[in-house]
């Protein structure tokens, strides 16, 4: 029996694309047992003032809510939040007309997270689980269950993220301009029947509406067309999606419309249902090509004025792990990286994630600081995506994104594997003793300015800290130094890494330590790429061969892993 030296006290698995926490203008709770301000969801919505323009949170406790819920157009900026313990279920069997539904939203600026919408009526009449009219509407981690016309995506710009949509006939239909990201669609048409996954109603070629599905899954029972033309210029696009054999080989049905006006695209899709051999000839089948599909990207199709980022601001959280909370493993979903985001920028030690505990591991999580993310301000304060203090800390397949001081690698021995860092200046800084392996660093440079990839702060030659980058990639836009000394004995080493032309030819800046260049340790060994040309490097840079004995001290076993703690973290993430 092998006894692990890295016992895990707590495993936190993050399934949701965003972690929710925000200081709302108003916040109420719906709870059927009377523990909230309201017992019904509709009563809570009725309490929102007409003409509201500040985010109003309605938290819904777990339970089954048998009611029809309607949000009128004058009640904007509502955030409907389901319990994280168990999705609340809003259900009815409403089926009087095609505009009857369990849930109806007619307001702009609406967000729903972690809620299940159900229409229990199982017959051929239209019976939507939800009807959506308003512009700038977002559904995250929601479920829509019905039989016919499950999701009536009627009008407006909408964004669906990690949602589940189930039905038999015309499952998603309407005239919406909508983007579905990492959603799952389940067909329940049954044996010997044929259903339709979409029925998109664009009437004219100049209309902007349509449905785009990006990295979605389609499966179920029975047989279904990907779509039928509900309008003469119907438009539906599937990109990098997985399609099971539930998809009828022909793929699409023109219904009673002229095929020439229809836009049905499949790009880079896979699975038995994506076989294009028997597709109708007016389908556009293509490999994934970012440029060719540019008009169908999230930014261009529904988010030209960045409203989705505004809904992101409703879903913020600052996470702090205190020094007494050791042995935590923070694990993100493999389906879609959860995003932990904030816009905190009060001081150099403010961050979206602040970890002060020893023995901490994170895997597959995106840490984001939104402060000045649009780069509209010039003079800004430090705004780290993460600040790390604890010893024996490891990050695997994580992302750190922000504006300045993205990773405050303050103190302790740390290991970063296959991580992504993006920022403008001092992207990685601090006094950590850290090893970066197979990571990617992207510089987002400002015009006519020079930035810094690292700002390492080792103060004395006898200190053990420093940054080592092995087999990493550096690219981006603008111009950046590999580093500047944040301390008199600053130490940064790049080994067998690829450096693009974003790297300034001189490589390193002695900054305020011009008179003490001999105290700096800046090494490049076996690097390649246009930015690795050493002919113009600062003379205090050491350019070494990868076989140099001088690199021995910078191997992981010698630099950060003398007691083999990194191998223990490998066991945890496996």
Task: For this entry, give a set of tags.
elongated; ten-stranded parallel β-sheet; 5 helices; Pectate Lyase C-like; 37% strand; 51 strands; eleven-stranded parallel β-sheet; 2 domains; mainly beta; single chain; disordered N terminus; 574 residues
List the helices and strands and how they pair.
Layout: E1 10-14, E2 26-30, H1 41-46, E3 56-60, E4 64-66, E5 69-71, E6 78-82, E7 89-92, E8 103-105, E9 110-113, E10 116-119, E11 130-132, E12 137-140, E13 143-145, E14 151-153, E15 157-161, E16 164-167, E17 172-174, E18 177-181, E19 184-188, E20 194-200, E21 210-214, E22 217-221, E23 223-229, E24 235-239, E25 242-243, E26 252-253, E27 263-267, E28 284-286, H2 298-301, H3 307-312, E29 319-321, E30 328-332, E31 339-342, E32 353-355, E33 360-363, E34 366-369, E35 386-388, E36 393-396, E37 399-401, E38 407-409, E39 413-417, E40 420-423, E41 428-430, E42 433-437, E43 440-444, E44 450-456, E45 466-470, E46 473-477, E47 479-485, E48 491-495, E49 498-499, E50 521-525, E51 541-544, H4 556-559, H5 565-573
Parallel strand pairs: 1-30, 2-3, 3-6, 4-7, 5-8, 6-9, 7-10, 8-11, 9-12, 10-13, 11-14, 12-15, 13-16, 14-17, 15-18, 16-19, 17-20, 18-21, 19-22, 20-23, 21-24, 22-25, 23-26, 24-27, 27-28, 29-32, 30-33, 31-34, 32-35, 33-36, 34-37, 35-38, 36-39, 37-40, 38-41, 39-42, 40-43, 41-44, 42-45, 43-46, ...
